[in-house]
């Protein structure tokens, strides 16, 4: 703020607008130089996380099978010192101090958890300590409904909250890159990865989650008012205002400094131009600088957060914005796999965005679109291309004119949701207006609000106030899920019969009331198909595919268990070890209890990369290793 004020005082008279960029190559080069420094911390914590995952997997197999997968623990004992010395992260330094004693525990061959020992009943464990009391129930696993949440992270320091989210079973997080500088968003990613390491140390098994980012809008908007400000600020006539493109002010706007995402447009602005904010506020430009516009208010009005800004007609508002290029480069550098366009736009809009992504070497990113469902109008099917073109959708609801009101959807909106669901594309639903009871959902629209979405967005600072929608969604989903599956027409569009197999797996899980569906595979395609039929059981995906960690948790009820091994001697041995590792995780976390049913999905033939067989297993937490060794691949085959 002081720098801006000093520059404003020293800049007298008129000044020609200076272009902040010369060409696209210069822009990309300057962004990459800055963001590569940012990405170093993310790469460091990711390497530490992968090393910890490898050590935990080896320890698990030593306890279960008496042998190591990759090599001998004694031959690689320096891994523990390398983990401490190379990755001196603040949160890891606190938990990795116990790793030296962990190697001794592995030599002694201690059991993986308390559940694998010879204490089959909880009563035996606590009965001698609390005489005269009766234990009513045993601890249960995480609430399945928590895995349906997607937390929108804020820039507020939330190390403890991130750990609580992961412990409660949440595996999906979203960043809004429009808010705050990119350095703070990078810090959030590092904090999340550190929280994953902390929870993984507590679990004894790898913990992975999905992070995706919402891009800055291509059109121009003001930033958010600073914390502590009123909901609106009155801009009076004659006030001096600075419009800045400095992202540090994107969530700290005041009556003196207002952030606008318009870096590419400043070079086209001239002195005495009029800039409109919202419907009432008009600003006259007094001086132009590289990152700031010095203006005065010529028409007063109320300033609120995130108001549309209209620049003069000579400014090309349809050009891909600098902020979009910066956000895409940031997503690539920090390893994000999914980005969300602020609006679906038109076909040329998507073409331009994909062309820019290709030039930035971001074509591998999955492109989602933000859609405001109750603002979609018409009944002519002109929006069907959106469901076909994008890889997924962030669905929001606009605030009604009068509150409370009934959610009304036009045929185009209903058709869009049906097509997106039928195409097995992930749908993330922001239902905060329903949680606040500003909108009520008619039973005719239950499917669109409570069944089709894979995840439900909750802001991190409002997570403790989302109980109403969580209970409502859980209750309605339990009522309509079975009916929806029975009424769904079977149309197997796959070449391998995978759709029919996925439906049979979900049907079997409902009939036997399975607790978990364990999918052992490489690619997450079968997981996506199983998730499409919305099973009540949790889906545990065991895979060595690194890229799948960055997006598979977006799908309904999916949790990934990373299994990256250097030793793949045979196909059957690989499937067996993945299955054993998954059941050991379920036993350790008390997700599956003794005698509950688990469905194992795997590929029986070595020549296939697609799971083509499933087995219903009655869980025995003491002898599942012996059972799987004889059941997965019968000797007669």
What does this structure look like?
The protein is 37% helix and 17% strand. The protein contains 19 helices and 23 strands. Strands 1-2-3-12-13-14-16-18 form an 8-stranded parallel barrel. Strands 6-5-9-8-7-11 form a 6-stranded mixed sheet, with no helix packed on it. Strand 13, helix 11 (384-389) and strand 14 form a beta-alpha-beta unit. The radius of gyration is 27 Å and the shape is globular. Helix 2 (24-65) runs parallel beside helix 9, helix 7 packs across helix 8 (182-203) and helix 16 crosses helix 17. The chain has 637 residues and is an alpha/beta fold. The longest helix has 42 residues, at 24-65. Mean pLDDT is 80; it is low at 7-22, 71-124 and 138-142.
Quick tags:
23 strands, six-stranded mixed β-sheet, 637 residues, eight-stranded parallel barrel, 37% helix, 19 helices, globular, alpha/beta
